[in-house]
Amino acid sequence: MDSDGTHDARGTHADRVPRPAGPPRVPPRPTQAPGGPPRPDGSAFLSWLRTPRPEAAPGVWRFGHRPRPEVEPEQIPARQLLSGAFIAFLVGYLIWSLLWNGYLGGWWLLPLYAMIPDSWAQPHSFGSVVVVYAYYVAVALGIMIGVGRLGRWGEVWRRYGPPAWRRAAPVDDRPPVPEEDPAQWNALRAAGAADAADRLGSDARAGLMRDVDHARITRAWQGVRSGRHSLATFTGAVLREGAAACLHPSGERDLPGRLAQHDLVTGQVRLGTTADDARNPYAYRGTGMALGPELLGTSLLAVGPAGSGKTGGVVWPLVESLCLHALAGRAAVVVVGAAGAGLGPVDAYDVVVRVGNPESVYDLDLYGGTTDPDEAAAVLAEALVGDLADPHPSGDSRRSTTVLAQLLGPYRAVHGRFPSVPELRQLLDGAPGPLGALRKALTDGGQESLLRELDARERQLGQPGDVGGVLADRVALLDRPAFAGFFDTSGQTRPFSLRALDHPVRVRIDLPQRGHADASRILSRLVLAQFAASVAVREDRSLFACLVLDDATGVVTPEAVRGIQRLRSANAGVVMTLRTLDDAPRPLRSPLLGAIGCRVALSGLTPWDGQDFAEVWGKEWIEARDVTDRQIIAETPAGKAVHMLRRVITGNAPTARAVTVRQVERERWSASELAHAVPPGHAVLSLTSVRGDHAPPLLVDLRNPGA
Question: pTM here?
Answer without folding.
Answer: 0.81
